[in-house]
Specification:
Number of helices: 22
Oligomer: single chain
CATH class: Mainly Alpha
Number of domains: 1
Distance between the termini: 37 Å
CATH architecture: Up-down Bundle
Radius of gyration: 23 Å
Number of strands: 0
Structural class: mainly alpha
CATH topology: Sodium/glucose cotransporter
């Protein structure tokens, strides 16, 4: 079979990691962490084998046959969203900057009402596999699919970088192996999950990881609060005593210093949530629009509770881990960087057993998210580009094969970029994906679903403007231009460009659409009525099931 080498590679990963157990003793894991880790990897590979036996068509591969319930899908969405950036990155930001780290948590949560009330039902009624299906119902399919696939792929790759960096750091600390080897192992497992199990395996890995992460986070939170008599006041006092900024860490201004940056950061988090391709794809895995709405309701509840936990865990790490020589190098820097604050806190709160459990849970978190991301990227390549643009008569077997090749290619790209961005905070790396989602995918999707005057020319103009500005500002901004490429000063002074890119995208789409007087534009405007009926009722224009 063509993909047997991947299965052999996964087995090799399991064989390579255990000998590093002696290095894990440096953090007093006593082999417990490795046991949990290997147990999870073995269990999820079993899930993948089970799912592979039930994946026979493109419908099975992309959307699990549309048989996932609202509760299951809500847990899977939460599992998608509660990523390494959320647990490791946000707690690391709170650990390092205090109050301002909460912006990432609150901003991401604030985007879910948009998804619930504006997108979930219409996407389910109009789409099939990806959000491009809904957008192209009344717009020219080929150029719009190319645009949607480009925005999705850029967002997926940027999101993958953050997850892979978090995974690499986690495995590096846990096993004491080289960062590059750790990232390579994660990439191999990710490719195995998606290539063989498709959406069904990805969904169940996400559900398992969501339950484990919520349970583990709750346990860490309770153990931390118990050390301060369940008093948040005592926790905050201890945290401010450890932090270099003192009580100022409880006030805003440590991470984001000017109003424009605050507004732009909020724009990326709120509207980017509604434009993430791997989140949008999940609404096609449920049987109907009602279950799509229930999915978002359950996901919002789980994610909201999770962010309450990250708030306490972040300040708990500040109080109990900061300044502890057991978890710092000779310069006083936390082992693994601020991203590992939550893992070190688990060690303080519950010893080697909780350290091992939370390390395995974090790894489960990363594998689940990268699997969902890779699947959405692969679907953009195989469904939106290959099947819809280049080879519209391709067979189902051919499309699944292309999806698997695309999965391998995305995995290789993610590993290489994770090596380049090793020193970056994973929450900010993921924010770059939110920026693209807010600048390209959300304007295109919102205007296509709600504005009758949108035309293909307008959508292309706005989408290209948003994509070029978002990527350009990211590359020329402080993080990539200075911190990664080593230049002295950034060309673009703002670290968070979503506000400018999203405004340019909306403006370009609206202005060009209003100026477009072509015959095609007139047909596209007239097509909005039928699309509106279909989106509202789930029926076609003649009353047939959508």
């Amino acid at each position: 079979m063509l993909f047997r080498p991947l299965a052999a590679a996964a087995a090799l990963v399991l064989l390579l990691l255990p000998p590093a157990a002696s290095a894990a003793e440096a953090v007093n894991s006593g082999g417990v962490a490795i046991t949990f880790f290997l147990a999870f990897v073995t269990a999820t590979l079993g899930v993948t084998w089970w799912a592979a036996r039930r994946t026979h068509s493109t419908h099975d591969f992309y959307v699990a046959g549309g048989r996932i319930s609202g509760l299951q899908n809500g847990l899977a969405i939460a599992g998608d969203f509660m990523s390494a950036a959320s647990f490791l990155g946000v707690t690391g930001l709170i650990f390092g900057f205090g109050f301002d780290g909460l912006i990432y948590a609150v901003g991401g949560l604030a985007g879910w009402p948009l998804v619930l009330f504006l997108l979930s039902e219409r996407l389910k009624n109009l789409g099939k596999y990806t959000f491009a299906d809904a957008v192209t119902l009344r717009l020219a399919a080929t150029p719009i699919r190319c645009l949607a696939a480009s925005g999705s792929l850029v967002a997926v790759v940027l999101y993958l970088i953050g997850q892979m960096v978090g995974a690499g750091k986690l495995i590096q600390i846990l096993f004491g192996i080289d960062y590059a080897v750790a990232v390579g192992c994660v990439g191999t497992l990710m490719m195995v999950y998606v290539c063989f199990g498709g959406m069904l395996a990805t969904t169940w890995v996400q559900i398992i990881k969501a339950v484990l992460l919520l349970s583990g986070g709750s346990l860490v939170t309770v153990l931390v609060l118990a050390q301060f008599n369940f008093s948040l006041d005592q926790l905050f006092v201890a945290a401010t005593q450890q932090h270099a900024r003192g009580v100022a860490v409880l006030a805003p201004g440590g991470l984001v210093h000017d109003p424009v940056s605050v507004l732009s950061l909020g724009t990326a988090l709120v509207f980017g949530t509604a434009g993430l391709p791997h989140i949008l794809m999940r609404f096609f895995t449920v049987p109907n629009a009602r279950e799509a709405r229930r999915s978002v309701f359950f996901a919002t509840a789980f994610i909201g509770y999770f962010y309450v936990l990250t708030f306490i865990i972040g300040f708990g790490a500040m109080a109990l881990v900061m300044g502890n020589p057991q978890f710092a190098d000779a310069t006083g820097r936390l082992l693994g960087g601020d991203n590992m604050a939550a893992i070190h806190l688990a060690h303080v709160a519950g010893g080697p057993v909780l350290l091992g459990f939370m390390s395995a849970v974090c790894f489960a978190t990363i594998l689940a998210v990268v699997s969902g991301l890779t699947l959405s990227g692969a679907s953009a390549i195989s469904h939106d580009l290959y099947a819809s643009v280049f080879h519209p008569h391709a067979s189902e077997q051919e499309l699944v094969r292309v999806s698997r090749y695309a999965t391998i290619a995305l995995g290789v790209v993610a590993v290489l970029l994770a090596l380049l961005f090793e020193s970056q905070n994973v929450a900010y790396l993921v924010l770059m994906a939110f920026t693209v989602g807010a600048s390209v995918n959300f304007p295109l999707l919102f205007l296509a679903l709600y504005w009758r005057h949108l035309t293909t020319s307008g959508a292309l103009t706005g989408g290209v403007l948003g994509l070029v500005l978002a990527v350009g500002c990211i590359v020329l901004g402080p993080t990539v231009w200075v911190e990664v490429l080593g230049h002295a000063e950034p060309i673009v002074p703002y670290k968070y460009p979503a506000l400018f890119a999203m405004c340019a995208s909306f403006s370009g789409s609206i202005v060009v659409s209003l100026l477009d007087r072509s015959e095609r534009a007139a047909r596209e405007r007239a097509g909005f009525n039928a699309q509106y009926i279909r989106a509202q009722t789930g029926l076609g224009a003649e009353g047939t099931p959508a």
